[in-house]
Amino acid sequence: MAKIIAVANQKGGVGKTTTAVNLSSCLAYKGKKVLLIDIDPQGNSTSGLGVDKKKINKSAYDVLINDVDISETFVSTPIENLLLCPSNIQLAGAEVELVSTISRETRLKNSLDNIKENFDFIIIDCPPSLGLLTLNSLTAANTILVPIQCEYYALEGLSQLMETVKLVQKHLNKELDVEGVVLTMFDARTNLSIQVVEEVKKYFKNKVYRTVIPRNVRLSEAPSYGLPIILYDPKSKGAECYLDLADEVIEYSEEENLV
Ligand code: ADP
Ligand code: MG
Fold first, then answer.
1. What is the 55 CA–ligand 1 centroid distance (Å)?
2. Pocket test residue of 9, 10, 18, 24 for ligand 1, highest count of atoms within 8 A of CB
3. CATH of the domain at 55
4. Which positions carry the signal peptide feature in this UniProt record (predicted)?
5. Per-residue pLDDT tens for 70-105?
6. What is the DSSP string of 92-123?
7. pTM score above 0.95
């Protein structure tokens, strides 16, 4: 049975998509069967894996709104073992259309029931908001993985995010757990980055991954080639760190299975 991880933070530009694409790719590279669901209308995970947003046949939109079987949306990616449920700007309409839909928060969860046994991990790349698309993701997920950028105001908005997690736990998904917090775009040359790491560790304690993702220009170049870092530049620091993060995620999921 797949472990379902929602990569979420309502702030934009903190490294959600970079983490979703590269964590998924590294898990698959290590032999896990992985599905990446792009639930952000911007479709950055989709284009970041070389899939042309304009040529998508069926997408996450059809799953949420038209009851299309999610397996009909699957497209292959440059990584064997990694399938993608793509998205494009059409999904922006879903946020509004879902409001008047029955079981509006559980549509993604329901769509995964039949397919989750076919994967080891299902990773969901969330949009930068706490609207119905993110709620669908948190309702479908076992855990939430929060990327935090090592920047000014890094902790801003996190209490709101954690409130949302509590509300989801109370009303929609009792089992939702915090997978972990990953610090992104770390720059060892700045005191600020070091301070942010300290503060985040105070707040999230043992939920912070040992692996910290550095600011790495290769990570920001890779999407324009439609490749995950592990294929674009396997020797880069970015590739090394996302492989380490994948190890931690696997380690953690295996420990859970032992309990
Ligand atoms: P989000 O999905 O949270 O909006 P992205 O993953 O799209 O954030 O990242 C925002 C921008 O920062 C993108 O241009 C991305 O390429 C870049 N970026 C993300 N992580 C890194 C990193 N570790 N080093 C350098 N650039 C990064
Ligand atoms: Mg994104």
1. 24
2. 18
3. 3.40.50.300
4. none
5. 999 999 999 999 999 999 999 999 999 999 888 899
6. HHHHHHGGGSTTTTSHHHHHHTTTGGG-SEEE
7. yes
